[in-house]
């Protein structure tokens, strides 16, 4: 008997299990870190070191390691073939053919359960194959340790209004916890590797244990401790991009909406959520300052293709967020450099005012 040939719809694509999504107990594929340890034996001490955040291979003889916010060169040399073999092997581990010649792609940007990998092959990378290995930290810093370097921020402008948080004995960490529990909306801004996600994780520790949390990220890095948590991962595919997932998340009835980083048209849907009763929302955006972060949000809203007047977008921003925290990395230390309250301005738009708390020792004044 001849069985009829099974056909699949045109959009069907077989699922390939990879370490990025497979069950740990069922997969026989070695983790990416184990594979790298076999291919890069000289790098094994840094791959195993929990203090190391990232390993950057610029050339076979030019390798940098980031640990505790500082760069150092271990002074080792890798074989060029070992670098290319590692990129190809990691690509195949992710289900992609990388670095094997045209028409295979010359770059790799993927994550595994234990590593985030970015690689660019020669000749797209002019000097040599380049490989960046980013390691997730085993433990996130506490909110207290993140706030320890703040001290007292710049005072408000002379004659301008000032925002005084409650006089809490625990200082800035206590103020942030109080604001998060009061369901204030936070936008965290900063450059690459400035500590935006790390600070978001610190804020998450103030969530009530019975809250339902929906998170949306392109690279899952947020660590939510509440039991009622749904994590969505955005993809570069129709219907799976961040904007579609924001809309989907709102139908899942979240008490808290988390967006790891706003990059595009989802900024519009985020503003709509913040302005329609979804309090306690946290997100981040790349920007050079707190004010630039809000301006960048305005720009990203325009990518949604809406013919809104600029004033209307500014008014939406003014009512969406209560506070903006700008992160910077100075001398290897990541810390909030600006903590600003957002107020609607007279005549439209918004204004920013620095938040300040009393000097240490004056909590009882």
Structural descriptors:
10 helices; six-stranded antiparallel beta sheet; globular; alpha/beta; eight-stranded mixed beta sheet; Beta-Lactamase; single chain; 365 residues; disordered N terminus; Rossmann fold; disordered C terminus
Shape-level CATH architecture of the largest domain: 3-Layer(aba) Sandwich
Distance between the termini: 91 Å
Could you describe the largest sheet, including whether it forms a barrel?
Answer: 8 strands, mixed
User: How much of the sequence is in beta strands?
Assistant: 15-25%
What is the CATH homology-level superfamily of the largest domain?
A: P-loop containing nucleotide triphosphate hydrolases
What is the CATH C level class of the largest domain, in words? Answer: Alpha Beta
Helix content: 25-40%
Low-pLDDT stretches: 1-28, 154-163, 165-169, 359-365
How many individual β-strands?
14
Output the strand order for the largest sheet.
Answer: 9-8-10-11-7-12-13-14
Whole-number radius of gyration?
23 Å
Give the SSE order as H and E letters. Answer: HHEEEHEEEHHEHEEHEHEHHEEE
Instruction: Find the CATH topology of the largest domain.
Output: Rossmann fold
- Count of folded domains: 2
Arithmetic mean pLDDT = 84
Q: Which class of secondary structure composition applies to the elements?
A: alpha/beta
Number of helices: 10
Estimate the global geometry from the Cα principal axes: globular
